[in-house]
Amino acid sequence: MSNFSLILVCLGVALLLLLAYAATRPGEFSVERRLRIGVPADRLWPLVSELRAFNRWNPYERKDPLINGTYTGAAGGVGSRYEWDSKQVGVGAMEITAQQPGRAVQMKLDFVKPFKAHNHVEFALQPTADGSTEVRWRMHGQANFVAKLMGVFIDMDSMCGRDFEAGLQNLRQIAEGGQA
C-alpha cells in the first residue's frame, strides 16, 4: 500500500469516527440565561410580550441595522409574528404561541437561513422579594444530525449564551433607564 493510499484510509477512518461520534450526541439542545433586573415584572412585561418592544433590546436585531423585518398579526399577544431577512443574522420568523400575562411568553422560532431549524423560546419573569425581577431567557429544540455534527466543533450554549447575556443586559438598560 502506498503512502497516499494509507493517508486516504486514515482520513476515511477519521471521518467515519467523527460521524459516529456526532450521531451519539444528544438529540435536543437547550440554552438558558438569567438576569436580575431592578424593576418590577409589570414594567418588564411590555418589553417581552410585544415583538416591536422585544426588538428594541434583541441582540440579533442590533447586529444588523439593515435588517428587513415585517410584523404581522396583533401588536402583541398570541399570533403576533415577526419575520426577518438579514445578511448578518439570516432569515427566519418568530411567533408568540402562548402567554401567561405578567409571567411568561412562549414563542416559536423558525430559521430558514443559514440553516433550517425549528426551536422554542420562553421568557419568564419571576418577581423577587426586593421588588426586582429575575428574567429567564430559554431556547430549546431538536438537534438534527447536522446540528449534532456542528456541535462537535461549536458550543451552542456558549455561542447563543453570549447573545442572550447581551440581550438581557440591553433589556436591563432599557428597563432600569426608564426608556420602557
Number of discrete helical segments: 6
Residue stretches low in confidence (pLDDT < 50, at least 5 long) are: none
Shape: elongated
Give the H and E element order. HEHHHEEEEEEHH
What's the mean pLDDT score?
86
Range of helix content: 40-55%
Please name the CATH topology: Alpha-D-Glucose-1,6-Bisphosphate, Chain A, domain 4
Count of structural domains: 1
User: Widest sheet: strand order?
Assistant: 1-7-6-5-4-3-2
Organism: Pelomonas dachongensis
Protein name: SRPBCC family protein
Pfam families: Polyketide_cyc2
Give a written overview of the molecule:
The protein has a single domain (28-176), classed as START domain (Alpha-D-Glucose-1,6-Bisphosphate, Chain A, domain 4, 2-Layer Sandwich), CATH 3.30.530. The chain is 40% helix and 35% strand. It has helices spanning 3-23, 41-49, 51-57, 59-63, 145-153, 156-176, and strands at residues 28-37, 68-72, 81-86, 90-100, 104-113, 117-127, 133-142. It has a 7-stranded antiparallel sheet. Strand 5 (104-113) and strand 6 form a beta hairpin. This is SRPBCC family protein. Pfam families: Polyketide_cyc2. It comes from Pelomonas dachongensis.
Labels describing this entry:
180 residues; alpha+beta; 7-stranded antiparallel β-sheet; 6 helices; 35% strand; elongated; Polyketide_cyclase/dehydratase; START-like_dom_sf; SRPBCC family protein
